[in-house]
Amino acid sequence: MAPHANADVEIEPVTDTSSVVVIGPVQTKTVHPQKITIDHVMHHRQTGTAVPNIVAAFASPNMFKSKAALGKPKAKKSFEHRLTEESKSRNPSSLKEAMKYYRAGTISLCGGLPSSEYFPFEEVSAKVPVAPAFAEADTATSGVTVSSGKYDTVRDGKSDLDLAIALNYGQAMGPGALIRFLTEHTEIVHDPPYSDWDICLTAGSTSALEIALRMFTGRSHYVITEEYTFSSAIETVVPLGAKMLGIKMDADGMLPGELDDVLSSWDENARRAPKPFLMYTVPTGQNPTASTQSLERRRQIYAVAEKHDLFILEDEPYYFLQMDPFVSGRTHTVPSPFKPAGVSDFLANLVPSYLSIDTSGRVLRMDSFSKIIAPGSRCGWVTGSPKVVERFMRHSEVSTQNPSGFAMVALHKLLDENWGHKGFLEWLMYIRAEYTRRRDIMVNACEEHLPTEVASWVAPKAGMFHWISVDLTKHPLYQAKGGNIDYATLLEIEEAVFVSAAEQGVLIARGSWFRAQRGTDTELFFRATFAAAPAEKIIEAIAKVGGALRKEFGLPQKQVQNGHAK
Amino acid sequence: MAPHANADVEIEPVTDTSSVVVIGPVQTKTVHPQKITIDHVMHHRQTGTAVPNIVAAFASPNMFKSKAALGKPKAKKSFEHRLTEESKSRNPSSLKEAMKYYRAGTISLCGGLPSSEYFPFEEVSAKVPVAPAFAEADTATSGVTVSSGKYDTVRDGKSDLDLAIALNYGQAMGPGALIRFLTEHTEIVHDPPYSDWDICLTAGSTSALEIALRMFTGRSHYVITEEYTFSSAIETVVPLGAKMLGIKMDADGMLPGELDDVLSSWDENARRAPKPFLMYTVPTGQNPTASTQSLERRRQIYAVAEKHDLFILEDEPYYFLQMDPFVSGRTHTVPSPFKPAGVSDFLANLVPSYLSIDTSGRVLRMDSFSKIIAPGSRCGWVTGSPKVVERFMRHSEVSTQNPSGFAMVALHKLLDENWGHKGFLEWLMYIRAEYTRRRDIMVNACEEHLPTEVASWVAPKAGMFHWISVDLTKHPLYQAKGGNIDYATLLEIEEAVFVSAAEQGVLIARGSWFRAQRGTDTELFFRATFAAAPAEKIIEAIAKVGGALRKEFGLPQKQVQNGHAK
Hints:
The structure is a homodimer. Chain A is of the alpha/beta class. Chain A is built from 18 helices and 19 strands. Chains A, B: It is an enzyme of class 2 (transferase).
């Protein structure tokens, strides 16, 4: 239950009914001299600062970083000059500020925190897999039940997080037990080049993106993004009175030269908008195009960001779903016989994040448990420079507050007390292999069933999406219109293919939904996900998409027998 | 596990891996002719529409209302004319709109919903009390374990909500199982006078309030509220560039005559703001004053709202914590030997809500599980007219999405499958009795330990807070200044009392933190909560507050022995 014994509690425990909120400087103890790695994370933890395990305790990554991390230079900039009036005008909560007067033994009649006596949950448990036997069938036979009692922390000393803490109000950054795990994870995976990075838990990246946009985007502003981008991000930006500015891209993502050109030649009068400074990007397995920026590309884009003083929102739900290359006709098995050989190899082969190359503090990285654990966790975290994360917390305090305690306890029990960092990375390797297998099934099905006279694609190297380009010039309407197709005609063709597939019982996503600047499409695309449907259904569905394309483009139908093209 | 057998599933179940989102008209079956009541809710349910139990299924209260509810006139107004540009400009998600093409058997490659195969939670369980043995000690002996498996719904037919649904993405309003429970609850408790009320789950009322404010409040607007109001609400309004407009109040809450006067005489030029139309109110156990509006007061305020076309945000976290009157020297026991005798009596004695008197659709009621189950649920719900709730959902889609699936499953298992409506109301009676006992302890302690020469109060009739008025004119500084005290001096005295109490180890909240219009205080108040600290600590703390007041007001200290004043 509690492999990480908490022998050195420095903050005196109090009962949870004292509505304690501790803000202020925290004593750190022994700090490990080297960067935290998988191999010595537990040693680092055992010799480091204990988790503050009282209700609504303040926690900070600085409590848990290695000496190596703390010894780096601070982030060069605060990015206060990029904040909106809304964000700048947020004040800390009066009630929480009062807590600087809190001392051990203080009785608080201040904050309206209900007594945990009245939480009608004495214990919650979950049946979960044990690393590395992750498949559903394995959980039935070899899974374990992890449990969290109401008073495991202070009264029973069994854990660093219990229901009395998780189910009460808390600080915006989240409970210390999760901040510690994520601090260790951040050093292990990203090792940011500056020392004062901070972390705040989020209610998922959809919520985090909305908060981040309100921190940096005013009405009439443009937000820089890829030419095609996550439709929900567009739908979040539009009501703010802002617009997306789509930058041309290839299979490696946004083109840095294009980005520099657009910014260097920005004419505020002609554009009727200030020069953009906020970038929203999904660097890995981009939604919808599956493009994945190489390290070289990331460095180039970061250099342009430095030149034009951009602030980067790095949205990385698919970061760990980086795949082995697709080989035609082959389907990867699970577990993969290919590399990575182990977690060290897995980590070494991940394209480095923007967070890991950011020296200025100009990146707010958004991580999420949605795609790697479950969307219903409604839990993620942001990592970035201290002032930016502090503003993010101030907004969280008056909106989401923090993720659900049920989710936080479940994640703590699974990730920290059951899997640990090594098991978590092995899990990520496992689902990466599963999604690779699904990617292979879909791309092989496309090779078999789609009319390559009109359809083409680059096999995804990451994520959950396959992006299919369809050659408009081969469509009868294009021919009829003498080589000129306007936007309305493009939409008409796109809709015809969509409806034709839907009538055969397959739903695919239309490329125009993802166009950063609506109405500027000149090419035809469709997005298909290999995340959701079972493998055999994927093949059947792609065959039907092939049929719809053939029908709409006036191509002869392929005869299909037993799910395979003849 | 599933007392409410789901024999009549009308929407064909599909595997959860098909990423289904069903939007559109829903067939209702037999509709019960009478309003839903505690006595026949289960009969109504068994003869009514089944819960749509597929991933991300659309649900609506209209599926579950009684014929009596559906037969009422519709809400008179839509309140579109009060929406901000931001709210009006929200469009439904492209991906979700596409789902109108979804038919039974359709394979969706459209939405990026991960397969539930990769959720590493096979089952979650919770140990919970059985009604009416609610105390912690009883749960240890007579509590039960409720469990939710991954495929209880479609594959095993055991429940209306399982992990495959709750842990995936869902619709903004929440899963059908919870919409059904809350629809029944709404008819049982509020029975709104119009037919087309809608419900959307929220990530708690702090989040709901922020969304509602963005729906109705522009920069430079005023938001009408009580003279003293929830500090977090003030802190949410300020960054929006808006201000609170505090209306004078008494122990029955906001004064309708004052409200009418302020609005009738509003001068847009002098005020440099449009005439206010949004009201934020906590009608029951108001934070911080504990004032509770009588039905008569609510009707008067509603009439003013009709006259000036106001929209009302009814924030009701403490609605069910309505108490028996305080009797000096007496402490209510738990369970209470006083009324209510049972759930019908309990319901009959609750002051009716604004929702229950609203014919125009001008009320958005915000309920929360925070104060009645646990804050860490981060789950609540809003109820209101259909256009308003629809706009709320559009915003939720690009921010919180919906509450955590872990919380939703826990609440469903506890409220629906274990307690049922009767058990839930019995639970509310139980915690109401517990908070009544705590209220009694605090008010009796105030009678014993506070200097009544300067301190006065009205015993709270609801909620979690006690509001203590302190007579500034008795302070030496007032005397020294010849009867004139400016704001700075008021703050100085307030801070001195606060710090003096803090130095003795007690934190209380300062009245000025809650002043709707900051800087306009003319009286001195302190707020003390009886929710958090254990009973004996409450008495000790109030004794120390008494000591601090005596010290600062130059009154002789009382001698205290064994926690009792001599």
